[in-house]
Amino acid sequence: MQQTKNRYRFHDLLGLYARRILAEDAEGTTARTRLYSWYAEAVTAAIDWAYPQVVRLGAHPEPARFIDSEAAALDWLDDELRALLAVVTDTAESGDQWLSWQIVDQLRGYFQIRRHADGWLPAAQPGAAAAMTAGDDIARVAMLLNRGQALAEAGRDEDALSDCLAGQALAVAVGWTTAAAYLAHQIGWLQPERGTLVDADLWMRRALELTEDDQDGHVRAIALNGLGMTRLYQGELREAADLFGAAVQISETGLASAVRQLGDVDQAARLLGDVLDAYQRRSHRRGELSTLDELARLYSQGGDGVTALEVGLRAHDLALVLRDRKAQAQTAATVAQVHLALDDASAAIEWSEDCLAIARGAQAAAGPLRDRESQS
């Protein structure tokens, strides 16, 4: 019986028989380790194709031996996610603990692409526990980063900040400068949610200091982008535009936002049109979402309220598909602003209330989850 795409279910009696044979097989443990090791290699190769620049414990020397394209890598990861998560859990308390943290370390790149996918935090927890038990400080850095981002994705910003602060201090202590810079950026990224833009500025600048020797690297680019966003929030539009320009390969949407707010609508439209086209060709739905939201603001600023509303609703629908509560609230706020510009006060109020309800709902959802974990 086909259970899901590329997955088939066999009869329960056959499963019982297989488990009995495995238990009686002297080679069973060795075979299991070979299988799990293959999964660790394959997921590393897949991430080399899907998200090669992600900060992680290592890359694969021959990714083409497993997978031959980015599309094939994402298809494989989609198909094998449940199996990979099962291996993470199964190895976390075994003699092969390193497999647990190696696989979940690679999966962080996948979850950053497929943020709607289930299982990030449940995988990050056993991976972090395995690294802690083994006493491997490099692995602990990777797992604190992993769990910190998973917690942030679950709306638990304070817990995420705690993990990222611990991971950043440990990364500095063990000399993993790239991870230290990335974690400093991640800490800075969490500050605006807490209303502390000064701290955000300090942490983003610390990330830049740690990347001085890697001027063209991915982490420096996202640090420039992060500082640009911080300066944008602080109203320093010209400086923000300069920072986004320096990180343009990573953050074209942010550059367009700064240009829009500086009043150059035509240049912002050109930038956003190019970015949207690129995201749609790559099927990068999160990038498409943020670009559509910015385009809606741009059209509204230019006086084309009808187009702004159409684009804003597309962005909101995409946020619903991705199950991104923060993006849902943000796009609802954008639609509310467009309705206000169209002199439809009742619709603006309705969408503003929706935005508030989404934000309150996300906050309430984080509380019970935190309580359940503290009890367990």
Q: How would you portray this structure in words?
A:
The protein contains 17 helices and two strands. It is mostly helical. A two-stranded antiparallel sheet has the order 1-2. Helix 4 (97-113) packs parallel to helix 6, helix 10 runs antiparallel to helix 11 and helix 12 runs antiparallel to helix 13 (265-281). The radius of gyration is 23 Å and the shape is globular. 43% of the residues are buried. Mean pLDDT is 85; it is low at 366-376.
Mean pLDDT: 85
Order of helices and strands: EEHHHHHHHHHHHHHHHHH
User: Oligomeric form of this entry?
Assistant: single chain
Structural class: mainly alpha
DSSP strand count: 2
Provide the fold topology:
Layout: E1 2-4, E2 7-8, H1 12-24, H2 28-50, H3 70-91, H4 97-113, H5 120-134, H6 137-153, H7 157-174, H8 177-194, H9 197-210, H10 218-233, H11 237-246, H12 252-261, H13 265-281, H14 285-301, H15 305-322, H16 325-341, H17 345-375
Features:
376 residues, mainly alpha, two-stranded antiparallel sheet, 17 helices, globular
Characterize this entry briefly:
The protein is mostly helical. The protein is 78% helix and 1% strand.
